[in-house]
Amino acid sequence: MKRILLIYAVTVCMCIPALLAQDATVKKIIEIGQTDNQTMRHLDILTNRFGGRLVGSDAYENAAEWMVREYKSWGLDVEIEEAGSVPVGFNRGPWFGRMLSDNGMNLHFATPSYTSGTKGLQRGHVLIEPRTQEEFNRIKGKLNGAWVLISGKNTGWPIDRSVSGDSTRAVIKAENAEITLKNRDLSRRNMQQGENNELQPYREFPALFYHEMCEAGALGFIQSSTVPIRALYDRKMLNEGMTFDELPELPDIKLDEHQFAIIEQMVKERREFQLEFDIRNHFKIGPVKYHNIIASIKGTEFPDEYVIISGHLDAFDVATGGVDCGTGIAPMMEVARILAKSGAKPKRTILFIAFAAEEFGLLGAKAFVKRHPDRLTKIANVFNRDGGPVPPVSITVPPAVYEDFKKFCEPIKQIRPDYPFEVILQKEPRTKPAQPGSHDGTVFAVEGVPTIYFETADFKGYDFNYGEIWHTERDLYTKNIPEYQEHTSTVTAIVALGIANMKKLMSREGVYK
């Protein structure tokens, strides 16, 4: 009995210093988070010095190099892992346009990524696109030097220049030719026999005579867009292997729907006016490689077990990626800095991963999972943040780890007493997804890796609306909420460290069905 008591006493004595050190580290994390929080500084540099970070762009490469430099300056180990390549690179420069008339105006517009700019400042008259061969023949002589208004409402994607798109064009042209013949007959009957037949509407397809209008000398194409303007990328670049020699040659302009309506009405009234645009979209010869940036704080006891904190570094370049995914990258970097500065010594390795090409189909995350299949069973949890700048207010966990989470989440209440936070008991396991979904974390969930995320909320009522940000011109630094972002960094640091310091690798019991 004395021997047992002696062993117990020694064990307790050995544990107390470790627990005290852990408590001291958490206090230091909170102190740094409150007095020296650099989250918004990281976001400022990421968005305002580099801007939109499309893979294949100089901005993406510059941001990646900067991240590596910052991590190393904080004493972290850094790996740069190739995740793929794009066949052509793209860099966006400034753009502007205006209407020249008695009531002229500056134009509010954008262009999708990987589409052409202008050949310097280009000025021309405006036409409405033809829907039939007959209409094309009537205006083909005037297409030279014209901006062409095309049908449809912009949803972010560029004009369909694909083989399948051309096939659809051919079918619609044939159908419209038949409609023309039918309408002629109906018009004749209306006139000669006094009937009141309604003419059949033509089928529409944006830029139906695309190739013919290009050959006729059109300057570019203009499509109506809802506001805020959304601008994505040319999917055909990836799907059909676009090369430097097969790039779009004419601008694809998505114009504020209110201005579009004014211009369209002026064209219908056959009024004299011109539009001018200067759009600086530039390409570079590929392939252009892109990389995941992986920093780490190595575990002291279980270096081959991991907690992952992630976001995606790439962002659409019509804005600056301040929210999507600056709200993931900036807090992730600050968690790394806070933990390093606090002197944290996690038992398990904490990885900080900036994934590439999320916007092109979660490609960076997929490349990581494919390259490291041996790590998947050793990942305790993946905290992937890819949403609004709203803070964690709760976390829902399975029964097997509920008590552990309650314990190491307790200090969160000390950060800001006015901020709520609750550990919620998960009643039923989640359904494991069969295929990846809308963000990088789902790539891991498919493999059965725990992806327990924070629930977030704009509980102070700052009226944040993710819908107006997502892939639009408003995805900017100024759309962030600094106090929310700073709080996110501190909370994430505490919880990630807590998971990394659990006695055993976090149980997967009850995570998925």
Structure description:
This protein has 513 residues and is of the alpha/beta class. The protein has two domains: 28-88 and 287-500, Zn peptidases (Aminopeptidase, 3-Layer(aba) Sandwich); 105-272, Glucose Oxidase, domain 1 (3-Layer(bba) Sandwich). The chain has 13 helices and 14 strands. It has helices at 2-35, 39-50, 58-73, 133-139, 163-193, 210-215, 236-239, 257-268, 326-342, 363-371, 399-409, 441-446, 482-500; strands at 77-100, 105-106, 109-110, 122-128, 146-154, 220-225, 252-256, 274-297, 302-312, 348-355, 379-384, 392-397, 422-425, 454-456. The strands form two sheets. Strands 1, 2, 3, 4, 5, 6, 7, 8, 9, 10 and 11 form an eleven-stranded mixed beta sheet that branches. The longest helix is centred in the N-terminal third of the chain and has 34 residues, at 2-35. It is elongated and about 90 Å long.
Please indicate the count of domains: 2
CATH C-level class of the largest domain = Alpha Beta
- Uncertain regions: pLDDT < 50 for 5+ in a row? 4-16
The CATH superfamily of the largest domain is known as Zn peptidases
CATH architecture assignment name of the largest domain: 3-Layer(aba) Sandwich
Average pLDDT, all residues: 94
Could you give the distance between the termini? 45 Å
**Category by helix and strand content:** alpha/beta
Number of helices: 13
Q: What proportion strand? A: 15-25%
Radius of gyration: 28 Å
Helix content: 25-40%
N-to-C SSE string, H for helix and E for strand: HHHEEEEHEHHEHEHEEHEHEEHEHEH
